[in-house]
Design goal:
The chain has no helices and 19 strands. By secondary structure, it is mainly beta. The radius of gyration is 17 Å and the shape is globular.
């Protein structure tokens, strides 16, 4: 994909992991076109963690009974995670991220850095926005498939728009003490109850 055209790499797990134990690197290359990494197949993962540290780059770590695999997606505008997973976790790095969470049958996370699409986790999904003054807009998510959704703003002055019933939103870093809030966080709710946990040194404004 280094010629700048749009390419799609499909990782099909129908016969297990089609890659060595030390993982896989997919380089979509230039800025022209939309390069996509697509994971699919019947393999069941206990945990899939996707880390987005910079634009068009992601690291996907999948743990399963067929072994653990790490996939690096570079110069990639979209990741489609079609694996069957019990738990999914998406982590953004330091920076002022603009993120939109949406979906009904699938879960979509969109930002200027990258677009992530995944089938709903069977039980647990968490999103960590990382350090920086982040804005998260929760448009919708597939509540029928999820039993737990955790959104962590982490350090910085974060704004979270449009939560739903039963969400847990952390204004600070996720830790045992929850006492290291850095900045003022704002949560704008929707219908239902939102459970909030913030550091003892910070402030949180709630509008419903």
């Amino acid at each position: 994909g280094v010629d700048g055209n749009g390419y799609t790499l499909i990782v099909d797990t129908v016969n297990g992991w089609p890659m060595p134990a030390n993982g896989l690197v997919f380089n979509g290359g230039g800025s022209n076109g939309v390069d996509t990494l697509r994971l699919e197949g019947p393999l069941i993962a206990s945990l899939v963690t996707t880390t987005v540290a910079r634009a068009s780059a992601a690291q996907i770590v999948a743990s399963s009974n067929a072994g653990n695999r790490t996939i690096y997606a570079l110069g990639t505008e979209e990741v489609v995670d079609g694996l069957r997973a019990e738990t999914r976790r998406t982590v953004f790095g330091a920076g002022n991220d603009q993120v939109t969470l949406s979906g009904s049958s699938n879960l979509r996370i969109a930002s200027p850095l990258i677009a992530l699409n995944s089938r709903p986790a069977t039980s647990v999904f968490s999103l960590a926005l990382g350090e920086g003054s982040d804005v998260l807009h929760v448009e919708s998510f597939p509540t029928a498939a999820l039993t737990s959704l955790t959104i962590s703003g982490e350090a910085g002055a974060d704004i979270i728009l449009g939560g739903r019933a039963g969400d847990t939103i952390y204004g600070d870093d996720v830790s045992a003490s929850h006492a290291d809030l850095d900045g003022e966080d704002i949560v704008l709710g929707d219908n239902g109850t939102i459970t909030l946990s913030v550091g003892v040194t910070g402030r949180l404004n709630l509008a419903n």
